[in-house]
Amino acid sequence: MAQPLDFVLDVPETPGDQGQEPSPYDESEVHDSFHQLIQEQSRWVAEEGLELQQREPGDPGRGHETLLGPEGAPVHSMATLRILASMPSRTIGRSRGAIISQYYNRTVRLRRRSGRPLLGDVVTRSARPSLRLYDLELDPMAQEEEEKRNLLVKELQGLSAAQRDHMLRGMPLSLGEKRGLREKSQTPHGKRRGQPGRGGLFSCCSRLRYACVLALHSLGLALLSGLHALTPWRYALKRIGGQFGSSVLSYFLFLKTLVAFNALLLLPLLAFVVGVQAAFPPDPGPGPRPTCTGLEFLTGAGCFTHTVMYYGYYSNATLNQPCGQPLEGGQCRPRAGGLPYNMPLAYLFTVGVAFFITCITLVYSMAHAFGESYRVGSTSGVHAITVFCSWDYKVTQKRASRLQHDNIRTRLKELLAEWQLRQSTRSLCGRLQQAAVLGLVWLLCLGTVSGCAAAVHAFSEFVIQGPVAAGQEVALLALPVVVCLLNLGAPYLYRGLAALEPQDSPVLEVYVAICRNLVLKMVILGVLCYHWLGRRVGALQDQCWEDFVGQELYRFVVLDFLFTLLDTLFGELAWRVISEKKTKTRRKPEFDIARNVLELIYGQTLTWLGVLFSPLLPAVQIVKLLLLFQVKKTSLLANCQAPRRPWLSSHMSTVFLSLLCFPSFLGAAVFLCYAVWQVKPSSMCGPFRSLDTMYRAGTAWVRHLEAAGPRLSWLPWVHRHLVENTFFIFLLSALLLAVIYFNIQVVRGQRKVICLLKEQISHEGEDKIFLINKLHSIYEKKERKEGEERSRAGSTQEAAPLALLAEEGDTW
């Protein structure tokens, strides 16, 4: 932090200041003294014919330079120092006496508001302590501080116990001083209650009550600390950030964000769909139940099929009641006195509301991350701020202090690397060569994407033509294995091609790798979506195709996790072992941020695609992310090294959330909307059996409400104008985009305002220096004139006796 100027504030008091101390009500006059002095000195300058002119930078002949003392501090006159000491910025918060006086005035106002008797009858207004000139140099007397402390203790005694505790907690004093004030401010009645043997039963009850309160408080703190300790990222994030920098840390922060999104998606599904259906299970169908062999954890089929895991298990009736006469569309009508819980409506609206909440949360998180990462202001003084203001002096443990030391060191490396990057430039020929190489590499990458998409499409057609027989569920893993192999091998090919195009900025290198991997994974997911809703629906008309799509997405999620583990094992551990044992270079691999982040986005997209067909898929994704966090953290600390070119990832979180929102979430929302509005559900299973589309369940419910009576006529109107009308959906999308746009504009406006405020602060500082120098010069001229007048008066007084002696000699 910037330290104030070191002024010698040993100012002698004038005769008018002795004997009386200004009251708090007169402090506004003290704060106006600087303005009054400027006006007074301006009149003196006008009388002398001088003019205050603004100094030009670099002109030593104009203005007055501030004199420097023996230690480099400016030396001002006593009057200037007195004015500077009376400024508002130098009267509060610098001494313990000022703090005590400040809280004394607060207790006075608090007692006045509460109607308690004041100490004004005992202490006069002029004798109350003031905030003026209470500084360590101006008020060195311990006796005056003790008097102020006694006044504060008297005021604290007049407050209630709750108000007294609240006031003491807010005081910026040490714990010992607060404890002393608390003991002194206790009333004699309260002290007698606390003494043993004098309160009898009342003292025992009070001590028991305080013991219970303290025990409950300690139990609550223990529970909070236990819950905090259960989180896997309690200490790991600080260690990763200190050892590997903010770039690698952004991956783990993004993983933590995905856990929160999946928990938010899972909670309404558990509350309104899965939990209700588990409480009222449907009648099991005829035939034996399949037995669990353990292979179901990979395939998702077998004994998992007829559970709440998949769409086909859920009923199309009002729960807990047998069917009466069916409604339009084949839904069951509950008998009289049935439970009014329509499972098709609950299933459809819960998934829709969960997606809507996720969308709002995702947009808000993206806007918040944008405001945090693109923070306004320049970075001119960020190096000094990091060096002098980053240390947390509350850290006392050796482990925490070493971790904080690593964080500051890594932060300085990233800042210096970013500064060096801004200083370096490339010639025109170098830029043209880089552009040509970049275009060639992009053509190769796009060709790889096209080949992968064609391979996935061809293999999916081959899988459709060869149906899997019962008992051969292992063959269902063929398509997920092929897709996972392509997703695993193509990023390594991109990484090899990236070596041909050396980028000046490591940030740009990561962004380019993210774009290439994103194009690959989105194209493959597009081919798979066509395979599921375009080809599988037609091939499985007589079966429950929703269960098959849910199982397929479950297999993709599980195998994606297994291949990530294999990649971590052979791509990082094996590389480290080979480099240490064979090459003797001890060169560990770097953490591939782009590939790992795109794996997270790919897995989250699979979860959003399958939540309609497998409501418990977010729970599987949460378990996967937690295990992945532990695996990646362990592999990072043991097998990887920090980036050789450190770089500051100030915008990475915003980029990750943007990619998660627009290509991933938007694509999943389009997929599910198409499945709800256009695809015919299977007639064998699920809550929407025998309906033309899943959306027909809502329209049938609206017609039923219209026939129920005029009291519920507003619900069909809402459904007709807000749900069926596409204009409302487009309007909502436009509002979301407008919110993002306005947030961007607000951040840009804040950047401009802060730049203007910094310029204003700089100009005001120059103005203050100019005024102080002018006042200093004026005071020197005044003192020089007074000295000349005194010397002239002294010479006159010395000449007068000589003249008298001469006159007496003449007379004689």
UniProtKB/TrEMBL annotation:
Residues 53-65, 783-792 have a biased composition (Basic and acidic residues). Residues 1-29, 52-73, 783-812 are annotated as: Disordered. Residues 544-650 form the TMC domain. It is found in: Membrane. It comes from the Eukaryota. The chain crosses the membrane at residues 208-230, 251-280, 345-365, 435-459, 474-494, 506-533, 553-578, 654-677, 726-744. Pfam families: TMC. GO terms for biological process: intracellular zinc ion homeostasis; protein stabilization. GO terms for molecular function: mechanosensitive monoatomic ion channel activity. InterPro entries: TMC, TMC_dom. GO terms for cellular component: endoplasmic reticulum; Golgi apparatus; nuclear membrane; plasma membrane. Keywords: Membrane, Transmembrane, Transmembrane helix. Its main location: membrane. It is a multi-pass membrane protein. Belongs to the TMC family. This is Transmembrane channel-like protein. It comes from Propithecus coquereli (Coquerel's sifaka).
